[in-house]
Amino acid sequence: MSKIQYPTLADCIGHTPLIRLQRIHAGQNNTLLVKLEGNNPAGSVKDRAAFSMIQQAQARGEIQPGDTLIEATSGNTGIALAMAAAMLGYKMILIMPDNMSAERKAAMSAYGATLISVSREQSMEGARDLALAMQAQKKGKVLNQFANPDNPQAHYNSTGPEIWQQTQGQITHFISAMGTTGTIMGTGRYLKSQNPQVQIVGLQPEEGASIPGIRRWPAAYLPSIYQPEGVDQVLDISQQAAEQTMRRLAREEGIFAGVSSGGAVAGMLQLAENLQDATLVAIICDRGDRYLSTGVFNA
Q1: 91 and 177, same domain (yes or no)
Q2: Is residue 77 part of an annotated ligand binding site?
Q3: Is 35 a catalytic residue?
Q4: What is the DSSP letter of 286?
Q5: Which of 222, 232, 248, 249 gets the highest tally of CB atoms within 10 A of its CB?
Q6: Is 183 annotated as a binding residue?
Q7: Does the annotation mark 139 as catalytic?
Q8: pLDDT at 104
């Protein structure tokens, strides 16, 4: 009898469901679809890029198991990297603003990562600066999700093909929050390679909004993996719209997701109002349980 080849945790990354919204509608005869990235092992779309960045760096001989890795993160990438580092045998140092949710910090620690906090005022820009300073001091290697081509490539190789196959090539609009921009860059590039008419729509927070996972970067910190020509339209999303839509997803669709996912669906609904017979896909990038302590579901 041949030995059964059981999957490993790495085999569980990706292959997430794409489902149709049943009670939330917009426009005329549109199909509104969401991709449930919270079904990844560490609970977010960032599992794809995190595993790719470590695996590819290892394949190139830049790192080897036992090394220390460093990354600035606002949450989901940190959790994903902590999981991937544990899976592949690396030490992980994560630097994040101190206003991130307690659940996110606890999850990173559970995977064995070392956490370093910067102030809310320093924000992600300060976290990124500190990560590079620590690398210069030989304290570890920065994976640098903001400039690492293995980030968008993970989505070109997996997220894009999955969506294309799951919609049988009928997708007309792809909507994604923009943080590091890896998801929208890689997925959008693949979808455009299959059909240049697919519209790639990115979301950024409107001025004054603070939405975990969505950023409006100062020019000096704009991720170098971001290529503006790869995004057809950028929508500003308000804090209120993101949070209200997040609660609607839970209460009307049974989809328990985070604030940036609410923002993505809010953007999809805004687009759909002026469309008909379109097939729109939005990324539900994580699960709502890592936001419970913030009280955002209580309104």
Answers
A1: no
A2: no
A3: no
A4: B
A5: 249
A6: yes
A7: no
A8: 85
Where residue 39 sits, what CATH number does that domain have?
Answer: 3.40.50.1100
Whether 135 is covered by a domain: the verdict is yes
Query: Region 108-132: what's the mean pLDDT?
Result: 90
Catalytic choice (44, 158, 260, 261): 260
Report the Cα 231 to chain-centroid distance in Å.
Answer: 16
- Please state, in angstroms and rounded to a whole number, the distance separating the CA atoms of residues 35 and 26: 18
The active-site residue, picked from 35, 46, 105, 123, is 46
- Average pLDDT, integer, range 27-50: 97
Amino acid at 39: N
Residues 250 and 171 in one domain: yes
Domain that holds residue 104: 46-142
The C-alpha atoms of residue 75 and residue 294 are separated, in whole angstroms, by: 14
Please say which residue of 88, 116, 142 terminates a domain: 142
Q: Left, alpha or beta for 75 (phi > 0: left; psi -120 to 50: alpha)? A: left
Q: What is the pLDDT of residue 264?
A: 97
With respect to residue 155, please indicate whether it lies within any of the assigned structural domains. yes
Q: Within a domain: residue 1?
A: no
287, 43 contact by CB (below 8 A): yes
- Residues 65, 103 within the same domain: yes
Contact 90, 69 (CB under 8 A): yes
Considering the domain architecture, whether residues 272 and 186 belong to the same structural domain is answered as yes
SS3 at position 28: strand
Tell me how far apart the alpha carbons of residues 95 and 124 are, in angstroms, rounded to a whole number.
9
- What does DSSP assign to residue 2? P
138 with 181, same domain: the answer is no
Q: Tell whether residue 76 is among the known ligand binding residues.
A: yes
The answer to the question of whether 159 is labelled as a binding residue is no
pLDDT band at 266, cuts 50/70/90? very high
**DSSP-assigned states of every residue in 78-139:** HHHHHHHHHHHT-EEEEEEETTS-HHHHHHHHHTT-EEEEE-TTTHHHHHHHHHHHHHHTTS
